[in-house]
Amino acid sequence: xxxxxxxxxxxxxxxxxxxxxxxxxxxxxxxxxxxxxxxxxxxxxxxxxxxxxxxxxxxxxxxxxxxxxxxxxxxxxxxxxxxxxxxxxxxxxxxxxxxxxxxxxxxxxxxxxxxxxxxxxxxxxxxxxxxxxxxxxxxxxxxxxxxxxxxxxxxxxxxxxxxxxxxxxxxxxxxxxxxxxxxxxxxxxxxxxxxxxxxxxxxxxxxxxxxxxxxxxxxxxxxxxxxxxxx
Length: 231
Known about the structure:
The chain has 5 helices and 13 strands. It is of the alpha+beta class. The strands form 3 sheets. Strands 1-3-2-6-5-4 form a 6-stranded mixed barrel. A 4-stranded mixed β-sheet has the order 10-7-9-12, with no helix packed on it. The chain is elongated and about 60 Å long. The termini are far apart. Residues 201-231 have low confidence and may be disordered.
């Protein structure tokens, strides 16, 4: 699990669009802490610090300890609304983590030992179907990433969730099927697939030897006219 991040915050007394706009003008971002069978807590955080933590790339998958009134509240970021033009954060939602509870999260997948895969060494391509896994995790054991070893994988092999050793305290949120995470495919298979798509666009339904129809040009018009006169 990645180390918990710390985010200083202050309580906000008023809700509403007017109060939120005023906070943004002051370089603050309105936010809320909810969940854990407690009433929602309205807060605001420094915009620059929130942007910095968002830039780490793992903010949404990290536990964030919000410092509020001298206490720390363990939370998990659930949403950060960004301005549609300048991408500045406008609002943030944090889920309060109750002691001993579980939470559903999306955790990124990382593939290891690609150099030990015979299929990849032969020129095969790792086709990633799922870049993240939906997991149900203990509040205090949220993994930062899931590592998948591709040692010994050949072209044509598939990697399913049943093959993955999940960390203690984590289990797949999808339990009704053994879904595919990645497959090893041959480059030629990809090219053949792309070529088939091109043929469908230009020659779908044609007989062998038939070419795609083109607009009739002046030379064709003259030939048709000459043939009509000779009849």
